[in-house]
TrEMBL record:
This is SH3-like domain-containing protein. Keywords: Signal. It comes from the Bacteria. The keyword Signal applies. Residues 1-22 form the signal peptide. It holds the Pfam family SH3_4.
Length: 157
């Protein structure tokens, strides 16, 4: 009985502490959009005007500020606005930038075997980045891409 009571008390304390500690997260940090459709507003409340409607799950964003349940974000085009925190996830993604196709290599080296080419605007899961190359997964196709062609790949946004 004491053990059950202890578990209930611990769960209640976690519920009280977690939201506050989530507000202490250091910014800026990378996140990605969790939903298929989400609004970006001009201020941190549902009463503010909608600036953009995003219809791209996994799009990488920079979180610049935290205010209660809202996050001030910047998208790959440099647009800034407020988004409800629950529509963001900490999973790192990146988007291919530039005008040309980016070459995905078998190893993190420009001389490594070419696996395929990815179009600008493609979004994928970002793995580890080192020495100018990042592990990148676009729809289950994995390889290495130059970090300077991936928005969302820098260590400190």
């Amino acid at each position: 009985m004491v053990r059950v009571f202890s578990i209930i008390v611990a769960a209640a304390l976690c519920a009280l502490v977690s939201p506050a500690s989530a507000q202490d997260r250091e910014v800026p940090y990378w996140a990605s959009i969790r939903a298929d459709e989400v609004n970006m507003r001009v201020g941190p409340a549902g009463t503010y005007r909608i600036a953009w409607v995003y219809k791209r799950r996994d799009l990488p964003v920079k979180v610049l500020r935290i205010k209660e349940g809202w996050r001030l974000i910047e998208d790959p085009d440099g647009e800034q606005g407020w988004m409800v925190a629950r529509f963001l996830k900490r999973e790192r993604t990146a988007i291919v930038t530039g005008e040309e196709l980016v070459e995905m290599r078998a190893e993190p080296d420009a001389a490594a075997r070419l696996l395929w080419k990815v179009e600008p605007g493609a979004v994928g899961l970002l793995g580890d980045c080192e020495a100018g190359w990042c592990s990148f997964d676009v729809g289950g196709n994995r390889g290495f891409a130059p970090a300077d062609r991936l928005w969302g790949a820098s260590e400190a946004p």
